[in-house]
């Protein structure tokens, strides 16, 4: 659904650049229709998470806990369905600080509620799920109230039956966007499944989960650049300013890479310390520390890669990037990780090394795609087709 939301990001951004503000509300409603239907179809995966994981030969304990948690967070699935379109609608119009304020307020409430329910009342996993449901619903309701309260007289003119027209073209772009992002995120999910097939899977999953958790923290900064460059590129292409779009790409990549170097250096300097933030078990801390170099390299690559993805979304290249993801991740990265992890007995480090090489190859291909692009031909063609 986040991928489907990026289709809205492309269209709304180009509509703003072209001055077609009246289409933004229509696009938002179309996207909400598609994502809500998608959430309905995804619900069985949440309901049958436990048997699916067992079928994939995951640890019984891990499968049972994951199955319970998935059932409890189904409300979040439908909150996501509305959050992503609303988010892209606001981003396209540069209402980022409003979203940040909403997120900050809900985050403060979320931290307090977690402390109260999970720690004080001792509701454990169920409490964490319920708190997550409440927090995500609050984010969605606040964003929705902001959109319909008269702050967008040109882009939100109320609910319209036009939202049900031209759905095929919108679904086509949404599916391409979803496939692009799913291939990216599922790659990391498959890695955790592969780690779950190793000996002593609980320890291995602990180590890689801690590392990926920290990676996601740093990735949030990069995703800010992803959103910014996506909006900038789509706006500039919609306004028929290809040179400005190209220059924005250079600025975003350089700036984000500098942050990547900063974060990677911090990981290397604290590789024996940061695991203690997540666990007090000596074996988990030791296993996670061994992944420090791999984590630092991944963080550095992930300071560049999401920015390039943002460029692709802004220009409407989702289908091309989806094909690149298949080749780099699933044809090259995963088989290499399996070979190193199982055949050469490198375990978690071998699997992660395969991921690292896949990410590196994808980054190089995307850079080549950007440098060879003819920006003069990218102006507003996608918007004209869908409208």
From TrEMBL:
Major localization class: membrane
Keywords: Membrane, Transmembrane, Transmembrane helix
Top-rank lineage group of the source organism: Eukaryota
Places the protein is found: Membrane
Residues annotated as transmembrane: 33-53, 65-84, 96-118, 125-153, 173-198, 210-229, 249-270, 291-311, 317-339, 351-369
Membrane topology according to the record: Multi-pass membrane protein
GO molecular function: antiporter activity; xenobiotic transmembrane transporter activity
Secretion signal, residue range per the UniProt entry: none
Biological processes, Gene Ontology terms: xenobiotic detoxification by transmembrane export across the plasma membrane
GO cellular component assignments: membrane
Tagged with keyword Transmembrane: yes
Family: Belongs to the multi antimicrobial extrusion (MATE) (TC 2.A.66.1) family.
Protein name: Multidrug resistance pump
């Amino acid at each position: 659904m986040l991928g489907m939301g990026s289709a809205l990001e492309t269209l709304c951004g180009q509509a703003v650049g072209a001055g077609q503000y009246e289409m933004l509300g229509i696009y938002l409603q179309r996207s909400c229709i598609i994502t809500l239907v998608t959430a309905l179809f995804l619900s069985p995966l949440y309901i049958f998470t436990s048997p699916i994981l067992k079928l994939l030969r995951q640890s019984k304990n891990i499968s049972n806990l994951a199955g319970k948690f998935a059932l409890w967070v189904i409300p979040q699935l439908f909150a996501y369905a509305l959050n992503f379109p609303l988010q892209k609608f606001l981003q396209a119009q540069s209402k980022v600080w409003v979203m940040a304020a909403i997120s900050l307020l809900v985050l403060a409430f979320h931290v307090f509620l977690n402390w109260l329910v999970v720690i004080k009342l001792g509701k454990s996993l169920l409490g964490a799920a319920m708190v997550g449901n409440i927090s995500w619903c609050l984010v969605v309701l606040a964003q929705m109230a902001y959109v319909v309260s008269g702050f967008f007289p040109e882009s939100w003119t109320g609910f319209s039956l036009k939202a049900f027209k031209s759905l095929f073209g919108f679904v086509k772009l949404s599916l391409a966007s979803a496939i692009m992002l799913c291939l990216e995120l599922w790659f990391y999910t498959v890695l955790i499944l592969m780690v779950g097939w190793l000996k002593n899977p609980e320890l291995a999953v602990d180590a890689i989960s801690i590392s990926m958790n920290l990676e996601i923290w740093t990735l949030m900064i990069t995703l800010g650049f992803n959103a910014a460059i996506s909006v900038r590129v789509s706006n500039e292409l919609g306004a028929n300013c290809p040179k400005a779009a190209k220059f924005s790409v250079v600025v975003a990549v350089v700036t984000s890479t500098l942050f990547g170097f900063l974060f990677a250096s911090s990981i290397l300097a604290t590789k024996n310390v940061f695991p203690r933030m997540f666990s007090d078990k000596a074996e988990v801390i030791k296993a996670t520390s061994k992944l420090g170099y791999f984590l630092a390299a991944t963080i550095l690559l992930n300071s560049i890669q999401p920015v390039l993805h943002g460029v692709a979304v802004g220009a409407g290249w989702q289908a091309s990037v989806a094909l690149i993801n298949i080749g780099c991740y699933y044809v090259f990265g995963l088989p290499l990780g399996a070979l190193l992890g199982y055949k050469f007995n490198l375990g978690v480090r071998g699997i992660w090394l395969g991921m690292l090489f896949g990410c590196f190859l994808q980054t190089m291909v995307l850079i080549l795609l950007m440098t060879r692009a003819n920006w003069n031909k990218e102006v507003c063609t996608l918007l004209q087709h869908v409208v």
